Amino acid sequence: MIIRRLAGLVLALSASQAWAADTLRCGSQLISVGDRSSEVLQKCGEPVSRDLLGYKRSADRREEFQVEEWTYGPNGGMYQYLRFEGNRLKQITSKRGN
Predict the structure, then answer these.
(1) Is 35 within a domain?
(2) CATH number, residue 31
(3) Is the pLDDT of residue 16 over 60?
(4) Is residue 32 situated within a structural domain?
(5) Helix extents (H) in the chain
(6) Quick one: which of 6, 57, 79, 91 could link to 73 by a disulfide (CB 3.0–4.6 Å)?
């Protein structure tokens, strides 16, 4: 009984928060973490919005690169947020719309 309640609580919490994935389907195409922004644009089309989040320095602090977030959706009530660092896809996050 306690295990069922705990499992239900975990499911409820995870359903209400954003979740990250390594791949995303755009029509019949798949994009993955590590893809170039030009590949994502070709497969998924123009995003609903593009937000410049700032700049990030490389680990050796010799280079600085742009950090950008693209938003797609809603698709089935879900929004997809793609984070690019230096024109490479670093993170895919999905969240149910309001």
Answers:
(1) yes
(2) 3.30.1450.10
(3) no
(4) yes
(5) 2-16, 37-44
(6) 79
Cα angle for residues 17, 70, 89 (degrees, 5° grid): 90
Name the residue among 24, 14, 39 with its Cα closest to residue 79: 24
Domain of residue 41, residue span:
19-96
Say what the pLDDT of residue 12 is: 44
Report how many domains make up the chain.
1
Residue 2 CA, chain-centre distance (Å), reads: 34
pLDDT beyond 50 at 61: yes
pLDDT digit string, tens, across residues 65-79: 999 999 999 988 999
CB atoms within 10 A of CB 59: 6
Which residues touch 39 (CB under 8 Å, ≥6 apart)? 31
* pTM greater than the 0.85 cutoff: no
15 token code pair: 């359903």
